[in-house]
């Protein structure tokens, strides 16, 4: 094993282990273009995740002469020149993120029968701009399984991707009306995508982003389609999401066993939990000390549901938002009351998606 080269240890030869703060790689893509990528590994904007399991998602600021020379996407209002690269290992059997985004872009272009101009406007500019991607076919973990003679080698196998996006900022950087308006942008964008068969399935603070236009407008963006699917994808009962923000109905034993279908109201509830979370824990874009709800991140899935249930009872009436989010708290309380009334019913009412959107979310829109 001491004689094994880096590639034999599973490292991609393009990404050498030399300790440099700004390594550059050149990748020949499927169009035979030489794409240069210089990663900034020392930036505060890096997001790293090291694990032997899962997607192992890492995000780095990146510079590229080749990609910067490409024509800008006319659909996007995000005129920043800054780029970020996402490196990760998704499951091969799932529909890929680039494929999902291509379907999303068809919706932003109005390429859906019966789509109105208003619906298109609620999506256009509110989704991430993918500049380039590359799939490293040779990295499929199914290759190792086939070499070992393991049956069903493709099941659960992963493959390495690099995707480059126009840079966005986290919605948690915002406060006051700017934050609430950006949050509403993502709510409406999600609703239209759901109508036209795109299922996001992972509404969390890290997946709600924004950018500022040259004229100073703040535009909310529904980001990160890693766990997304289309309506005809056979993953409706698969539990996906970030636990503290998942609907309480999905934090049950039955849901963990795959016996609960992921519905629109589950994502709608997640939006409300995100709104609550940010208002209680962020002050002018920064996490506060002694912040509430920390235990939700640390306990088991079942215990997290119990804590959220307790919060829906007395906890929400005792909670105090930070001063920079005080203006949003009335919306939070109204939305939470709607969810509490829903869970108080036994059996729970069967609600159409449109009714959920109107009564759980839209009715709480200021001046609605």
TrEMBL record:
Domain Fungal-type protein kinase: 3-279
Native source organism of the sequence: Rhizopogon vinicolor AM-OR11-026
Stretches for region Disordered: 1-22
Name this polypeptide is given: Fungal-type protein kinase domain-containing protein
InterPro entries: Kinase-like_dom_sf (IPR011009), Pkinase_fungal (IPR040976)
Gene3D superfamilies linked to this entry: Transferase(Phosphotransferase) domain 1 (1.10.510.10)
Pfam families in UniProt: Pkinase_fungal
SUPFAM superfamilies recorded: Protein kinase-like (PK-like)
Signal sequence bounds: none
PANTHER family assigned: FUNK1 11, FUNK1 6
